[in-house]
Amino acid sequence: MSPVKIPVRVKVMKNKRPEFVRQESWRYVRLKPNWRKPKGKDSKMRLQKSGAPQLVKIGYRTPKKYRNLHPSGYIEVLVSRVEELEKLDPSIHAVRIASTVGRLKKIKIMEEAEKRGLKILNPVITVSPETMKPEIIEPEKIEEKQEVSKEGG
């Protein structure tokens, strides 16, 4: 079973859905754009006059089958321990590692998730041991560098 393929129709619906904003939030800095129902007696927005922003309505809702899915089509699961990966199905779940988890534990979770074939939504960027090796500079090269710096200075 592969992740739920979100049909193009749902993506088009999502793009057509207006950005619902609080009445007059564009006018006053003190009002955040977070949605609040307009309740004023003469509110153009409440009366749904043309030119006023749209109200939230049931018709804009996403189909139940596609609600709360990650855009990739997987069900997003927040993980903070390696043991939590045991319950997950790689065909429908994707892992998001909690931000409170430390670097070493994140790496362990990533390794275990890769073994199980789980998709990681926020992978940790790790540096391989080969690239971490310090470059060994021979004494002759150090002397050459010092001479060049004395001549240029």
Oligomer: single chain
Helix percentage:
25-40%
SSE ordering: HEEHEHH
Alpha plus pi helix count: 4
Poorly predicted segments: none
**N-to-C terminal Cα separation, in Å?**
68 Å
Question: What is the alpha-carbon Rg in Å?
Answer: 27 Å
- Main β-sheet, in a few words? 3 strands, parallel
Shape: flat
**Which strand order do you get reading across the main beta sheet?**
1-2-3
Mean pLDDT: 86
Give the class from helix and strand content and strand pairing.
Answer: alpha/beta
Number of strands: 3
| Beta-strand percent range | 5-15%
Describe the SSE topology:
Elements: H1 8-16, E1 75-79, E2 93-97, H2 103-116, E3 119-120, H3 129-132, H4 139-152
Parallel strand pairs: 1-2, 2-3
Structural write-up:
It is a single chain. The chain starts with 7 loop residues before the first helix and ends with a helix. It is α/β, with parallel strands linked by helices and 153 residues long. The chain has a three-stranded parallel sheet, with helices on one face. The chain has a domain of 67 residues. The radius of gyration is 27 Å and the shape is flat.
